[in-house]
């Protein structure tokens, strides 16, 4: 990376290290105080409680904190490659935290140390939640900086004009990724000086690539899939960039594939990219079902007063049923009754035909921003998506998941192209990528792309992240009508 990139990276890593240290130390000593009381805080002077081999809990807290911070460092949780985008940073924090506590439990058992289980069971959730929260806050700050054009990587994209434009469209549409394209290098020199896309001038042909790298002081060179750059030239280019401390990034023609499914298989010096199949069966699906079952049951119990109040508001606002049932298509094309709080007048379905020509939807779905069938309470319920809370019972019954593709109507499924039916390979969800990415404001193509991306790449970690993003979407609603 260039000098500018290295400066902000080092500063960002120091800030992460400082916040990690504060969180970890606060968590372990808070657990010690909560488990043993204020008197135990003097263990460093005269321990009143010791382990089997005479180590006080204050010493243990320092050892646990040191091991925890070391694991976070060794596990690459502060690697610049995971700054700002994707779930890899959160996953590494989670993995290293669980590893440390697992090892402590094993070592304690092996040495028959009388480590209080309550101490570890308090420190683990407090520390993990605070670590993830602090990383999320730092990430949001980094995103704001990148929207202002700071803390970014200057990059040149190399390849055929069409591929350069495609990559520029993706990168420019997602500034939080941190790449700022300063130009393109493409075949021939006839296009030099022209713009392939707004803000993407052609700065050189292939022969002038290194001169362009030096002139524009770039941090990274992004090479799109192209037949114009031979393997030998690519290897030579890598050597030249190494001496300049410029990263070389190769893109794949594959799109919408999560990084967790992509693995490198070097064979005789030839890097082969192995793409794992999506998982629709097995232990991961069982884990997802257990999480859905426990989480939906817990949420129903906790939210039962809210559900009762909302039901009363619906009943008082307009005559009719409190719960609206509608046929939806679930996993494998099987239909089920989906539950929602009623947000429209009782005869809303009968009045639909007269409103079809006023749809604000995306061509397949009927949506109307000022639908006259929506009740006063219903408009508020829809705005904050709380009309969907009864779907927790669908999750409990196994018809839906907390996170998944949007549950389609039978009429929608009849219009599906063959490849869109892949949405039906997993259970539909109360929330999903479509919910946290614009909802009704999305085009049909974009909503399908998001659903298919989820189907191909889902994981329990991504589900948790989507649920967290859903909280923000509900409190700051957009595209809900």
From TrEMBL:
The chain crosses the membrane at residues 16-34, 54-75, 96-113, 119-138, 293-314. One of its GO terms (cellular component) is membrane. Keywords: Membrane, Transferase, Transmembrane, Transmembrane helix. InterPro entries: Bact_transf, EPS_sugar_tfrase. GO terms for molecular function: phosphotransferase activity, for other substituted phosphate groups. It is a multi-pass membrane protein. It is found in: Membrane. This is Polyprenyl glycosylphosphotransferase. It comes from Leucobacter massiliensis. The lineage of its organism: Bacteria, Bacillati, Actinomycetota, Actinomycetes, Micrococcales.
């Amino acid at each position: 990376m260039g000098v500018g990139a290295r400066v902000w990276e080092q500063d960002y890593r120091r800030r992460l290290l400082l916040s990690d240290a504060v969180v970890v130390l606060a968590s372990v000593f808070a657990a010690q105080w909560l488990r043993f009381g204020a008197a135990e805080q003097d263990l460093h002077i005269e321990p009143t409680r010791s382990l089997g081999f005479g180590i006080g809990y204050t010493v243990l807290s320092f050892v646990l904190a040191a091991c925890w911070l070391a694991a976070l460092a060794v596990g690459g949780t502060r690697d610049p490659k995971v700054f700002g985008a994707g779930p890899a940073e959160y996953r590494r924090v989670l993995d290293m935290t669980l590893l440390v506590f697992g090892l402590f439990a094993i070592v304690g058992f092996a040495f028959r140390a009388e480590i209080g289980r309550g101490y570890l069971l308090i420190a683990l959730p407090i520390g993990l939640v605070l670590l993830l929260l602090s990383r999320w806050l730092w990430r949001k700050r980094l995103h704001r900086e990148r929207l202002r054009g700071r803390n970014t990587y200057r990059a040149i994209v190399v390849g055929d004009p069409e591929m350069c434009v495609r990559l520029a469209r993706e990168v420019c549409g997602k500034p939080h990724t941190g790449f700022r394209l300063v130009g393109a290098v493409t075949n021939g020199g006839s296009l030099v000086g022209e713009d392939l896309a707004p803000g993407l001038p052609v700065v050189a042909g292939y022969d002038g690539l290194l001169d362009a790298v030096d002139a524009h002081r770039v941090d990274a060179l992004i090479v799109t899939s192209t037949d114009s750059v031979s393997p030998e030239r690519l290897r030579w280019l890598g050597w030249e960039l190494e001496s300049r401390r410029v990263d070389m990034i190769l893109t794949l023609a594959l799109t919408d594939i999560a990084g967790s499914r992509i693995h490198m298989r070097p064979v005789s010096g030839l890097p082969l990219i192995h793409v794992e199949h999506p998982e629709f069966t097995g232990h991961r699906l069982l884990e997802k079902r257990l999480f859905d079952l426990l989480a939906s049951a817990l949420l129903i119990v906790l939210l039962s007063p809210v559900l009762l109040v909302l039901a009363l508001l619906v009943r008082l606002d307009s005559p009719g049923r409190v719960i609206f049932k509608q046929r939806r298509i679930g996993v494998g094309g099987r239909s089920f009754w989906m539950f929602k709080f009623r947000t429209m007048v009782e005869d809303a379905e009968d009045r639909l035909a007269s409103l079809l020509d006023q749809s604000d939807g995306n061509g397949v779905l009927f949506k109307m921003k000022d639908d006259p069938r929506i009740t006063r309470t219903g408009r508020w319920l829809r705005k904050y998506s709380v009309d969907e809370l009864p779907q927790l019972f669908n999750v409990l019954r196994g018809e839906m998941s907390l996170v998944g593709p949007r549950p389609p109507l039978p009429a929608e499924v009849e219009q599906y192209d063959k490849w869109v039916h892949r949405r039906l390979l997993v259970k539909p969800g109360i929330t999903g990528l479509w919910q946290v990415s614009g909802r009704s404001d999305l085009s049909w193509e974009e909503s399908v792309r998001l659903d298919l991306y989820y189907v191909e790449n889902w994981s329990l970690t991504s589900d948790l992240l989507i649920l967290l993003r859903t909280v923000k979407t509900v409190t700051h609603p957009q595209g809900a009508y």
